[in-house]
């Protein structure tokens, strides 16, 4: 099920809302493959970006403005029904900027924006990792738990993955926030208590970017805490969207 840009994991009869998920740097739709089993109210979909999975032969897009412009067109059909965005790390930034671009295009906005593993865009202060030499980048990825140490045994696989990871990191590291009026979309921030890439102050800045309220939920774990709490995260998202009625 799905299109070149969007994959849905199951048919859901009369869902309250479609939850569209954006992966972390280097991630693909498979990150969200298990989410549908935790909800009957939502249809879970994931954005399939170039440079991974069935689009491995396509070069990843390293510029956020370019990526968002393509996504506005690719996902415009979603806006004829209730939908919400979830983004993790790089995916949080993409989901946020896409929401702003949809507003600029005069299209209906998501009924909720869920962000995890990312400081507020106007407060980002990131390492410059995407242009590190190969071995230094690999060491950095291992250090931030972005690469399983077992993968080090397969250098050819690492070399296959690195161009996409570099491009994804550049999307975030080359980003400059441009102030705009707050979004009229409720925000829910999820963060891992042991995530060294996210600060309490930085993630708290998301509240400045919405006029519709911002909730914050802390969960045990590091940058990829969601993997430990998949059922709980889906339940939190479902509760928010069902509570709001996911109506317009």
Topology of this protein?
Elements: E1 6-8, E2 17-22, E3 42-47, H1 64-74, E4 83-88, H2 90-104, E5 113-116, H3 134-143, H4 155-173, E6 187-192, H5 200-204, E7 214-219, H6 230-244
Parallel strand pairs: 2-3, 2-4, 4-5, 5-6, 6-7
Antiparallel strand pairs: 1-3
Helix pairs in contact: 1-2
Q: Which segments are poorly predicted (pLDDT under 50) over 5 or more consecutive residues?
A: none
Order of helices and strands: EEEHEHEHHEHEH
Helix content: 25-40%
Mass-distribution shape: globular
Total strands = 7
User: Structural class of the secondary elements?
Assistant: alpha/beta
Q: Calculate the mean pLDDT score and round it.
A: 90
| Major sheet: arrangement of strands | 1-3-2-4-5-6-7
Quote the distance from N terminus to C terminus: 26 Å
Structure in words:
With 248 residues, this protein is of the alpha/beta class. 30% of the residues lie in helices and 15% in strands. Helix 5 (200-204) links the parallel strand 6 and strand 7 (214-219).
Question: What distinguishing features does this structure have?
Answer:
globular, single chain, 6 helices, alpha/beta, 248 residues, seven-stranded mixed sheet
Brief summary:
The chain is an alpha/beta fold and 248 residues long.
């Amino acid at each position: 099920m799905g299109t070149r840009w969007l994959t849905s994991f199951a048919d859901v009869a009369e869902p309250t809302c479609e939850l569209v998920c954006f992966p972390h740097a280097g991630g693909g739709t498979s990150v969200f493959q298990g989410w549908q089993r935790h909800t009957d109210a939502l249809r879970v979909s994931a954005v399939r970006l170039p440079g991974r999975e069935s689009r491995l032969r396509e070069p990843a897009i390293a510029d956020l403005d370019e990526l968002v412009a393509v996504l506005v067109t690719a996902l415009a059909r979603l806006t004829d029904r209730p939908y919400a965005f979830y983004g993790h790390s790089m995916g949080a930034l993409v989901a946020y900027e896409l929401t702003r671009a949809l507003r600029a295009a005069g299209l209906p906005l998501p009924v909720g924006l869920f962000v995890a593993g990312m400081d507020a865009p106007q407060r980002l202060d990131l390492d410059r990792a995407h242009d590190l030499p190969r071995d230094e980048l690999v060491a950095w990825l291992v250090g931030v738990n972005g690469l399983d140490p077992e993968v080090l045994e397969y250098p050819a696989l690492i070399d296959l993955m690195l161009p996409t990871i570099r491009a994804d990191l550049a999307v975030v590291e080359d980003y400059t926030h441009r102030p705009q009026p707050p979004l009229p979309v409720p925000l829910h921030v999820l963060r891992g208590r042991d995530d060294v890439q996210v600060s309490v102050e930085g993630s708290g800045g998301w509240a400045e970017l919405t006029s519709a309220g911002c909730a914050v939920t802390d969960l045990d774990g590091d940058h990829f805490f969601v993997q430990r709490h998949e059922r709980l995260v889906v339940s939190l998202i479902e509760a928010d969207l069902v509570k709001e009625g996911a109506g317009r």
